[in-house]
Specification:
This protein is of the alpha+beta class. The protein is 35% helix and 16% strand. A 3-stranded antiparallel beta sheet has the order 1-2-3.
Length: 77
């Protein structure tokens, strides 16, 4: 699956001490991030990074993580 829209993301506003702007992370793919001056730009940047990560997994014949699996695993039983 290379449907980047299926993966949830978190948007965090960065404080001035961190340079400002916004950070986008994907719980299902730690290390895949987007960063930009606006939330919209950070989301777009993050989606490009996500697409590249999914494409790299496909190139080495590895299955991508199931969308939402990280959040489901974090839910208390």
């Amino acid at each position: 699956m290379n449907d980047v829209a299926a993966y949830r993301y978190d948007v965090t506003e960065l404080g001035a001490e961190d340079g400002g702007g916004f950070l986008v992370t994907f719980p299902d793919l730690p290390g895949v991030i987007g960063i930009a001056e606006t939330a919209r730009q950070a989301i777009a940047d993050g989606q490009q990074a996500l697409f590249a990560a999914l494409d790299a997994l496909k190139a080495v014949d590895r299955d991508p993580p199931v969308p939402g699996a990280a959040r489901a695993a974090a839910q208390p039983a």
